[in-house]
Amino acid sequence: MHRLTRDEARRIAVRAQLLDADRPGDVVEVAEQLAAIKIDPTAVISPSEHTICWSRIGWSYEPGQLAKAVEDDRLLFEYDGHFRPASLLPALWPLMRTRRLRATTGEYLEANAAFRADILARLDREGPLLAGDIPDTSAVQAKNEGGWYGSNQVPRMLELMSYLGEVAVSGRSGRQRVWDLAERVYAGVDASMDAAAAEEVLSRRRLQAYGIARQKSPWAGVGTAGDEATVEGSSWRWR
User: Fold this and answer.
1) 6 in Cβ contact with 233 (< 8 Å)
2) Which residues, given as ranges, of the chain have pLDDT below 70?
């Protein structure tokens, strides 16, 4: 059991997020420590993936470094709105295949089974494609909750298929994602890890990124990784 003062807990969190004076050397080091670099096209100053890297690395960071790490060196990959280190793929890919979706999402996929098969066949035949290059052959439209999607079902279906490890982002053309079969994008990745071991790996990596997190927080997802801790003035259990 670690008994921490509030100052100690703050230092652990700041250091884990690479926001102390000891700067990382490149974007791969940032991704390895944080486990995920959030992608957001909103650019009040610049897109979030670049502000995250710049705030850690400093003035030596250039946007091209991130693109090179993802598309040329393949040391990072894009999944679920984040750039993630390739070292996480052996844990993530098995979980993609067993990912549980909401009942309404499952019904949408079932109703559009032919549409889903069309996308897989087209990518297999033609190789990497933009969403705009894939025709919408959907039989049923998804409910547009929150107004995030237009009437074209291709982007929605591609995202769902990516969650399930069927397709993956192979690169970008400007801000647009280029899609391909996951088996090609993730070629050579060992996907033999079982779900329990994969969850344990991801819990440890989440805690590594936070430094300190509430044990029962549904957002942190650290479970029982790391060591128990108490923080001065807090009644919560921490890891």
Assistant:
1) yes
2) 43, 144-148
